[in-house]
Amino acid sequence: MKFNVKRAVFEFLSIVIAVILAMSLTEMRQNYLNRQLAEKSFSNIVDEIRENREGLIRDSARIAKDLDFIKKWIEDVKEKRKPEDFSAGFSLSFLNKAAMDVAQNNQSLNFISNERNMAISQIYDTQAFYQEHGAKTFEIMGDMSSSVISSKPEDLLPYVLRFRFHLGVVFNTVKAYLVESEDFLQNEALMPASD
Q1: Element (H, E) at 132
Q2: Boundaries of domain holding 80
Q3: How many domains does the chain have?
Q4: Which of 80, 64, 39 is nearest to 164 (CA)?
C-alpha cells in the first residue's frame, strides 16, 4: 500500500474547508437570530414605554390638581384663614419594566445599537427615579395621616410642606419622562438598529 501525499493533503484541506464553512454558516445563523431577538426585544421595550407613558399622562393631570390644592391650602394656613380639610389623592402608576428585564436577561441589548441603548437607559433611569420618589411620597402621606388626628392645620403644615416638595419632584420627573419618552418614540425608527 502506497501512501499518496497529494490525496492526503487534498482530503485534509477538504475537511478544513468544510469545518470552516460550517462554522461560518453557524455564526451567520446565530448573528441573524441575535439580531431578530434584539429587534423583538426593542419592539417590546417601545410598547412598554408607550404603555407607561399613557399611565403617566393621567398621573400628570392628577398631580397638577393636587399641587394646586396644596398651594391654596398652605396659603390659607399661612394667612390664618380656615383651610379646606386636607385631602390629596396622590396615586402612583405602576410602571412596567418587564420588557427591559427580559432584554437584559437574554442579553439582546448587546445586539442593539449604542444610540438605542443610551436612549432606553435614560428613560428607565427616569422611571426608577419616579418610582423611588413616589414611594417616599407615600411614606410622607402615612406620616401625615397620623398627624391629621390633631386636626390643627398648623401642626400638619410641616408634613404638607414636605409632601409638596416630594410631590413636586414626582411631578417634574413625570414631565421629564413624558418629554424623554416622546422624543424617543418619535426618533426610535430613525436610530440605527445595531452597531
Answers
A1: helix 114-147
A2: 5-187
A3: 1
A4: 64
